[in-house]
Write a structure and sequence with these properties.
- Strand 2 and strand 3 form a beta hairpin.
- The longest helix has 18 residues.
- It is built from three helices and seven strands, in the order βαββαββββα.
- Helix content is about 20%, strand content about 35%.
- The chain has a seven-stranded antiparallel sheet.
- The chain is α+β, with helices and mostly antiparallel strands and about 170 residues long.
Length: about 170
């Protein structure tokens, strides 16, 4: 299996949005990572999301009292996990899809509002075809959300058909 990854070192520093978009298929308004602050391949990632009143989801959730939905917070953790899997050599965006197969113990402890700068930490508990992760979202010292989740890396349909011909 070939593996397209952003060049890595033992502990990586900042990865900007353009590089994130080389890994994730998501695009605005569904890309929930602004940058990656730190990566230790096969172990953990710390990413950042700056919540803005201009985020489309906040226009309807809730008018006059904008709150970032919990499901978006869990999705941001999942996106960080996919970037970690890629930088660990376990996910190639040209060959694979990475899909949720389980969300466990999601907890939302404090509202996320416009102006919050979210630091999203995800630790890999297991990396491979099935990945298990634990994530936390903090704004400063305040824990906003946490979750455990499971994902599967599957060949894209065109990659699967070309692999079966080989």
């Amino acid at each position: 299996m070939t593996n397209e990854t952003v060049e890595t070192t033992e502990a990586m520093k900042t990865i900007e949005t353009v590089q994130i978009q080389e890994i994730l298929p998501h695009r605005y308004p569904f890309l929930f990572l602004d940058r990656v602050l730190e990566v230790v391949p096969n172990e953990r990632i710390v990413a950042r999301k700056c919540v803005s009143i201009s985020d489309p989801i906040l226009q309807g959730h809730f008018p006059g009292n904008p709150l970032l939905p919990g499901v978006v917070q869990v999705e941001a953790m999942a996106q960080a996990a996919v970037v970690l899997a890629n930088l660990s050599g376990k996910f190639d965006p040209k060959l694979h899809n990475c899909l949720f197969i389980g969300i466990q113990e999601a907890k939302f402890r404090a509202p996320v509002v416009p102006g919050d700068v979210l630091d999203i930490t995800v630790e890999a508990k297991r990396l491979g075809k099935i990945g298990r992760f634990e994530g936390w979202i903090r704004c400063g010292e305040t824990l906003k959300a946490s979750a455990k989740f499971t994902a599967i890396v599957e060949p894209k349909p065109q990659a699967a058909s070309s692999e079966s011909k080989a």
